[in-house]
Write a structure and sequence with these properties.
alpha+beta; four-stranded antiparallel beta sheet; two-stranded antiparallel ribbon; 3 helices; flat
Length: 123
């Protein structure tokens, strides 16, 4: 089963961390990635740029309208993700607890099963 583990970032929370705490998060992700590679459960992982560099695309009446920045005004934004393939939701949650962000108040880690990929419904 495939699961998307989303990392929700609050810049105010990150800014309040010490350099040592920030380094610990980076080290924790490196360890987590290596663990997923070793177990064969990692499909891919990506980190995203700050939403201030995003573009929102809408098409209305056949006309595209592109605006800069995030879609919603919110404290949190999607900072990155892990796409994994594991036995079940319980295992995906177990893996998510190993992500350093899950232990920091104000940051979020979400686990969602992939419904379809490449045009095919997942089993």
């Amino acid at each position: 089963m495939k699961f998307l583990i989303s990392l929700h970032i609050n810049p105010a929370v990150l800014d309040a961390l010490t350099d040592e705490e920030k380094a610990g998060i980076g080290d924790g992700h490196a360890t987590f990635i290596e663990s997923l590679r070793t177990s064969g459960e990692l499909i891919t992982t990506q980190a995203l740029v700050d939403p201030s560099q995003a573009a929102v695309v809408r098409v209305r009446n056949g006309q595209p309208a592109v605006t800069d920045g995030p879609f919603l005004e919110a404290k949190e934004y999607l900072g990155g993700f892990y796409l994994i393939d594991c036995e079940n939701k319980e295992r995906a949650i177990e893996l998510a607890t190993q992500i350093p962000d899950s232990a920091i108040d104000g940051l979020g880690v979400e686990v969602r099963q992939v419904m379809f990929a490449d045009g095919q419904l997942e089993a």
